Every structure is written in C-alpha cells, then in structure tokens.
C-alpha cells in the first residue's frame, strides 16, 4: 500500500492485459492478483472500480462543460462534490490555472471528444476527474505517451501530485516517467523478466537498460 509500481516493456509485452485484469474486465485463468493486500476476485466489483482512479493515454471527454466532465468521475455513494472540491482536484491536476483563464472558466464547453482543448489540457481534466472521488489506487495507463515534451512535463508533475499517499500502478512508455517508482517490473510476452528500482536495473545491465 502507498507504493508506486511501474510496468514496462515493448508493445505486446502484456502491460495492457494487466490493466484489464486490475479493473476486472476479465479474470486470470490461473494464479491470483492481490491489490493492497486483498485478493482481487474477492473484492466487490463496484467497490473495486470506485477505489481505482484511471487515467489512460486517450482520455474520453464528453461534449459538455469542464465541470460536468470532472463530476462524471464521482462515486455513486459519494456526497455531491462542491465547487471547492472540484477546484482542489484541479489544483492537484495542474488544471486550475488554465481553466481560470478561459472565458467561462469551469463552465467552458470542451467540444466533441474535448476537441476545444489541447492534449495536455484534456489529460489534466482526466486527472482531476480521477481524483474527484479520492481513490486509494491510481492506475496510469501510458498517461503521457501521446504528449509533447512540455505538455508531458506539466502532466507528469500533476501525476506525481496525484500519486502522493496513494498506491499507484504505472504502465509506462517513456522511462523518464517511472524513474522514481518504488519497483519496476520489466515484461515480455506476459512474463516478468526482471524487477527492481531504476538504479538497480540500470546497474544490472539487463533488458531494462536496453529499453
């Protein structure tokens, strides 16, 4: 609990399958998965998904306001978030400043699939949406891989803020995003080839050092 775990590997290595297993879109054929010390299949499905805040590579935004897009992330049993709650989530997501400069601020329409926002802005809205339900676990699925260098820097800072005090699973495309992870698992064809910290894996000179 409270650790950041990263999964890296080439395309087809099994990283995305792990995301599906953690979200319980399907169950493992053999073996078991534990999350924060609990057997995954024994956790109520709604409770599990309420516990997880997911930020993916291509965030889905709806053709409504920024505020409403964030509110779509709330749990069914959650008290309706206040404007202050929404602003706090956006501050953690490094989104409040750019939202405040928009003519309609939080009531700004984002367009179809968020077309009126940049990639980095959409991703920060998605982070705020993941945080509004105060999840105990963050699942970051290549959350910065589609961004340019400057946008990645801003979004990565937001992700670092969001991960503080939470168990975090990072599916990584760029090694720069996982160097501070507590443990990194290097995968290929669904198998873990090696694991350790960034420093230990670089020192050992294995597969990770060649990625």
TrEMBL record:
<dbReference type="InterPro" id="IPR003593">
    <property type="entry name" value="AAA+_ATPase"/>
</dbReference>
<keyword id="KW-0813">Transport</keyword>
<dbReference type="InterPro" id="IPR003439">
    <property type="entry name" value="ABC_transporter-like_ATP-bd"/>
</dbReference>
<dbReference type="InterPro" id="IPR017871">
    <property type="entry name" value="ABC_transporter-like_CS"/>
</dbReference>
<dbReference type="InterPro" id="IPR039421">
    <property type="entry name" value="Type_1_exporter"/>
</dbReference>
<keyword id="KW-0325">Glycoprotein</keyword>
<keyword id="KW-0547">Nucleotide-binding</keyword>
<dbReference type="GO" id="GO:0016887">
    <property type="term" value="F:ATP hydrolysis activity"/>
</dbReference>
<keyword id="KW-0812">Transmembrane</keyword>
<keyword id="KW-0472">Membrane</keyword>
<keyword id="KW-0067">ATP-binding</keyword>
<dbReference type="GO" id="GO:0042626">
    <property type="term" value="F:ATPase-coupled transmembrane transporter activity"/>
</dbReference>
<dbReference type="GO" id="GO:0016020">
    <property type="term" value="C:membrane"/>
</dbReference>
<keyword id="KW-1133">Transmembrane helix</keyword>
<dbReference type="GO" id="GO:0005524">
    <property type="term" value="F:ATP binding"/>
</dbReference>
<dbReference type="InterPro" id="IPR027417">
    <property type="entry name" value="P-loop_NTPase"/>
</dbReference>
<feature type="domain" description="ABC transporter">
    <location>
        <begin position="1"/>
        <end position="211"/>
    </location>
</feature>
<dbReference type="Pfam" id="PF00005">
    <property type="entry name" value="ABC_tran"/>
</dbReference>
<keyword id="KW-1278">Translocase</keyword>
<keyword id="KW-0677">Repeat</keyword>
<protein>
    <submittedName>
        <fullName>GTPase-activating protein</fullName>
    </submittedName>
</protein>
